[in-house]
Amino acid sequence: MCSLMYCMFLLQYPEKNIQMVAEERLRGIATQLYNEKNPVILIMGMESSLIEKEKNKNLQDDSHIVYISYGECTNPPFLRRGADIVNKQTMQLIKQNLVR
User: Is residue 47 left, alpha or beta, with left meaning phi > 0 and alpha meaning psi from -120 to 50?
Assistant: First the structure.
């Protein structure tokens, strides 16, 4: 369970314990990437791959965030939920670091 996408797919299972493990693992992966100075934000939407490419041209801006496109226009709720978990964790860590 070391892939963001694998953990996001686990969120589609009806078993709550599997979902809880996946959520915790997504937070853990986001934290590990942040600690390695590679914070990630997952994006989706029309032409998100082009937005990703543009935003990643300069990784020295906006807290060195790496943008990853995980889907175009429509995505199942479990993928959006997984992205929300990762993005929230990443932004929380960035904000904590700014306060220090």
Answer: left
